[in-house]
């Protein structure tokens, strides 16, 4: 299956990518999409049914890749003479990940099983 986002989407969120960054972004976008589909196996179905906004899914995948590209070595802090800079821990890992808030935003508000007005309605929240 195709990636949910493109290198151009990453560029829109961040800045113009170099050719090397564009190639890396393309690979990371495929990985991010596969990872999202593993974490939320029904995401494609939800997208097709209009239960989840396709643009939100696209930009969520692009944002996960942007975080990696913005800090490829996973640097947490840097300092030179009197200058020092510390990155937020969630941005400093250098690993591709989705935040809990991002994953929650990609779940439908409610999912009904058993057809329209079915017997079971599940309100997704946090998961293990």
Protein model, in words:
The protein has one domain (7-122). It is 48% helix and 11% strand. It is built from six helices and four strands; from the N terminus they run ααααββααββ. The chain has helices spanning 7-13, 19-39, 43-48, 54-70, 89-92, 100-105, and strands at residues 77-80, 83-86, 111-113, 120-122. A two-stranded antiparallel sheet has the order 1-2. A two-stranded antiparallel ribbon has the order 3-4. Helix 2 crosses helix 4. It is globular and about 55 Å long. The model has no long low-confidence stretch (mean pLDDT 85).
In summary, what is this structure?
This protein is 48% helix and 11% strand. It has 6 helices and 4 strands.
SSE layout and pairings?
Layout: H1 7-13, H2 19-39, H3 43-48, H4 54-70, E1 77-80, E2 83-86, H5 89-92, H6 100-105, E3 111-113, E4 120-122
Antiparallel strand pairs: 1-2, 3-4
Helix pairs in contact: 1-4, 2-4
Question: Which properties best describe this structure?
Answer:
single chain; 128 residues; mainly alpha; 4 strands; globular
Beta-strand level of the residues, as a percent range?
5-15%
**Number of separate helices:** 6
Please tell me the total number of domains: 1
CA-based shape = globular
First and last CA, distance: 26 Å
Biggest sheet: strands side by side, in what order?
Answer: 1-2
Binned, the helix content reads 40-55%
SSE pattern = HHHHEEHHEE
Low-pLDDT ranges? none
How many individual β-strands? Answer: 4
Q: Compute the gyration radius: what is it?
A: 17 Å
Major sheet size, sense and barrel closure: 2 strands, antiparallel
Structural class: mainly alpha
Mean pLDDT: 85
């Amino acid at each position: 299956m195709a990636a949910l986002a493109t290198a151009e989407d990453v560029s829109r969120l961040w800045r113009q990518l170099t050719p090397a960054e564009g190639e890396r972004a393309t690979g990371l976008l495929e990985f991010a999409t596969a990872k999202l589909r593993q974490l939320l196996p029904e995401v494609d179905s939800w997208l097709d049914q209009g239960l989840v906004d396709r643009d939100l899914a696209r930009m969520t995948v692009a944002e996960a890749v942007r975080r990696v590209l913005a800090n490829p070595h996973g640097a947490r802090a840097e300092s030179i003479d009197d200058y020092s800079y510390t990155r937020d821990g969630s941005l400093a890992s250098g690993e591709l990940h989705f935040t809990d808030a991002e994953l929650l935003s990609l779940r439908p508000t409610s999912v009904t099983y058993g057809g329209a007005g079915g017997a079971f309605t599940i309100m997704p929240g946090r998961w293990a």
